[in-house]
Amino acid sequence: MDVQAIPFLDLVSPHRDLEKELNEVFLGAVRSGHFVGGPMLELFENDFALFCGVKHCVAVHSGTDALRFALMAAGVKNGDAVITVPNTFIATTEAISQAGAMPIFVDIDERTFNIDPIKLERWIKTACRIDILSKKAIQRSSGRTVSAIIPVHLFGQMCNMDAILDIAHRYHLAVVEDACQAHGAQYNSRARGQWCKAGSLGTAAAFSFYPGKNLGALGEGGAITTNDEAIARECRMLRDHGQSQKYYHEKEGYNGRLDAIQAGMLAVKLKHLNKWNETRRTHARRYCEKISLCQGVVAPFEPEWSRAVYHLFVVRVKGRDRVQKELADQGIGTGLHYPVPLHLQKAYAHLGYGKGSFPVTESIMGEILSLPMYPQLTEEQVDQVVRRLKAACSA
Ligand SMILES: *Cc1c(COP(=O)(O)O)cnc(C)c1O
Fold first, then answer.
1. Which atom of ligand 1 has the smallest separation from the CA of 67?
2. Are residues 306 and 231 in the same domain?
3. Claim: this prediction has a pTM higher than 0.85
């Protein structure tokens, strides 16, 4: 049996076939001098807005900037509280803090790994009072106004948005989708009677184009999508030192723009995203079929209202650390997303959550294992990963 190493991620081969086009982008910038702003940026913003099915896209320096600007533009104020999950990358909560607010955690659903809308509403009902004037929820213990929620479409699968939007509507919360792992994911909205793309459902949404994401730049990148013209305008100002026109500053902003070269690279790669996502879904189906025959391994769950784009393919296994080590010994790269939930991170000790605060997140923490997942993976490689996984689990 031929045994070949299978890396967790492959950032080289996706660009091999695109070298000529990517070089042209670079030369275009060198020859025109458009390094910041300009036609390549506008082209990409239009293309990505179209891809997501929204009116506006504002490209920025990173997903973290996108989250922060979107929160601020959606009305999150200094001293507010913003709800999200402990089971996400720290950028989600960094953006909340950077917008001047405090993160509040709500536990996830055991099967989808995303926010559980029932726990979300229960938290609001038990921990908050409703302000008579603003009709907003105020956290009793802190006196903070709960002004927004960030549903994180983790691993490329969308949250149950109908339920979340309904709660948000009733409690006057802005909804900023963290779509940093979900470019092209879809949600079948009963409320709207159609399949909707990630980034098109909330007040605004944030995407990351960090190299390993489903759509990755050749460096840093991010974007905000929204149907709200005022929010798009505000984000454009925030990314550009609060300028409404050159040297006229309505407020202090940030240096949060996307390089024109990265925008050009992203426009080239965006043309392949649907195909790449389809291949990820094909790999996921193959993984799931084979894994269903593995004792002690739980495959990811995709509800009927979801079309996930599998940024990551995360299984649950008993004896995870031992299994991961055994796979590593066989040359199979895996990852942990995430080994320590945010509420147990040192950076958030001041929030006062302890062990036991979020039982579902904590129960999956020691069992999750991310297997190799990228479009350039072959069927044989998928089969080989499963064979090794099976062997490791029964050892
Ligand atoms: C990658 C990621 C981010 C941050 O994006 P950057 O571009 O790295 O700033 C935020 N949230 C989630 C869930 C992510 O995976």
1. 10
2. no
3. yes
